[in-house]
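User: Hand in any protein.

Assistant:
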Amino acid sequence: MSVLQNLGRSALCITQGYLLGSLNTGIILSKSLYHRDIRNEGSGNAGATNMARTFGWESGLAVLLGDMLKTEVAVAIGRKLVPGVKGLVLSGLSCLVGHCRPAFYQHRGGKGVSVGAALALILDPKVFGSGILTFLMGALTSHKVSVGSIAAAASLPVSAALAKKSTLCLVFTGYIAAIILYRHRGNIQRLLKKEEPDFHFGSAVESIS
């Protein structure tokens, strides 16, 4: 395969990952089911936590699974275009960027936790499992989902290193962690000021029409 063909496949891998990542499940479901934009509710974030807080745990779970599924699809296509770990890295990171800065929704998306979780699962179930345990420990002890998300993101490169993944995979998990932590910068500021609210499920009963 020529250099131009390789570049073309890499470009397609990145583009499809970004576009699939831009299909934000939270925005789609909130508008189609509740006729409201989740970005105008609660924390203003288009992610599973805000959906659960605003419309109930079922909506939050649906968004989590939807965002993880789109990530799986993006990576599957990406690996067809660019085999191996390189395909995972290119399609995975572009999907994460698309989720956070979606082309179809004024570049206002989620914080990347669900996509990051899906990428960890694809990379290595042990890395994913470690991230889940870290998330639960952080969230349950603090009663704040943001603490669990921040801790889980920060743990990804460490878990990948302990699992003896390649240097490329370590860089990959480092980028995932950096993007998620950056997207949580507002939460981190509120935590430092002790202003971050505890998590409570919302109810969507009165919202459905």
Remarks:
- The radius of gyration is 17 Å.
